[in-house]
Amino acid sequence: MASLASHMIVVILLVLAVSSALFSPAASTSRSLDQRPEKNGFRVSLRHVDSGGNYTKFERLQRAVKRGRLRLQRLSAKTTSFEPSVEAPVHAGKGEFLMNLAIGTPAETYSAIMDTGSDLIWTQCKPCKVCFDQPTPTFDPEKSSSFSKLPCSSDLCAALPISSCSDGCEYRYSYGDHSSTQGVLATETFTFGDASVTKIGFGCGEDNHGRAFSQGAGLVGLGRGPLSLISQLGVSKFSYCLTSIDDSKGISTLLVGSEATVKSAIPTPLIQNPSRPSFYYLSLEGISVGDTLLPIEKSTFSIQDDGSGGLIIDSGTTITHLEDSAFAALKKEFISQMKLDVDASGSTELELCFTLPPDASPVDVPQLVFHFEGVDLKLPKENYIIEDSALRVICLTMGSLSGMSIFGNFQQQNIVVLHDLEKETISFAPAQCNQL
């Protein structure tokens, strides 16, 4: 009888515990994605780094192009080195859009740069040896109960391009503009929108260099490598929709997992480049200006045996940059069809501008089409042409680059860009991104 009574007491206690877990008020409004199933999607707000500034559309574009110039120079190189004896891959780095998130337990709110051209998630951490100024307090791991350093034997530590083993797994990560972060690799609870995810591997940076990061507190890599947020979540889809660069609110959206859906969109294949596995490469087969298909060799946009060449789609690069010979053909055809005087003043950051007509008559701009494998992407005029009445110019928002090509975020405005990593495709769908 005593044994039966004890058993009944245990059963009653278990029922009470389950009832308490099911019906007691939640401590937080966020939902847990600890198991990270695909059905658990979420969305995160993004804003352009200049959205709070009192700039014209043309000024914002010029600022963005200027910020990205050094990054592009380094991105077109195959590798960069920290020391004479150590080399590591060049990661895209920086970016033009900030995402809101929270880190730790209790959660502290931060903003970080979204970058589809790199993998590592990181933020500045106390105690900081070298840190740039950021708009929010520096993350203090000692105040979070969910912070845990990763051992050197962890898979994420092995995925780092450069690491050492002392007090846990120590990392060093470099970007295309010479900026870098160095610290310890750890796991922490991250909150994105209303979704909370435990044990996300990230860099707790104590030695960070790069003024370009100062708009936020770090960076969230969305690349294809194992260190990225997308890889760690284990989801097969994500998408983003970027508002116009002159949108007054400047609120764009990142959608992950089940939230990332696109209707009536035709996909184009994603291509792997073993030399640069983090980047999202597309097969660009040609470009049309008006009714003219540009005389560009198909191999111009192909990935070469040494890993150079190809075309990546990137959220962190502002304007599209085409390999030198392809841009030369594009420039020549625009000059032919625009029938305006080329502006030679050098007053802008752009490579091709025309002088606006003195009578302010409307300008006839030819249709620009990117012919990806399986998809002809017709860009709206505002995605490749910009005017400035003060300078009296109308410009093509594209440029040249040696060694590779990049499809930038200015050309992606008001388009849902869906990455399907299971099917290895990207799809495009026109949208009003400020209404999603």
What's the arrangement of secondary structure elements?
Elements: H1 2-23, E1 31-32, E2 42-48, H2 57-75, E3 79-83, E4 86-89, E5 97-103, E6 108-115, E7 122-124, E8 148-149, H3 155-159, E9 163-166, E10 168-174, E11 180-192, E12 195-209, E13 218-221, H4 229-233, E14 237-241, E15 251-256, E16 267-271, E17 281-282, E18 284-289, E19 292-293, E20 311-313, E21 320-323, H5 324-338, E22 352-355, E23 368-372, E24 375-379, E25 385-388, E26 393-396, E27 398-401, E28 405-407, E29 415-420, E30 425-430
Parallel strand pairs: 1-12, 6-13, 7-12, 20-28, 21-27
Antiparallel strand pairs: 2-5, 2-15, 3-4, 5-6, 5-11, 7-13, 8-11, 9-10, 10-11, 11-12, 14-15, 14-29, 16-17, 16-30, 17-20, 18-19, 18-23, 22-26, 23-24, 25-26, 29-30
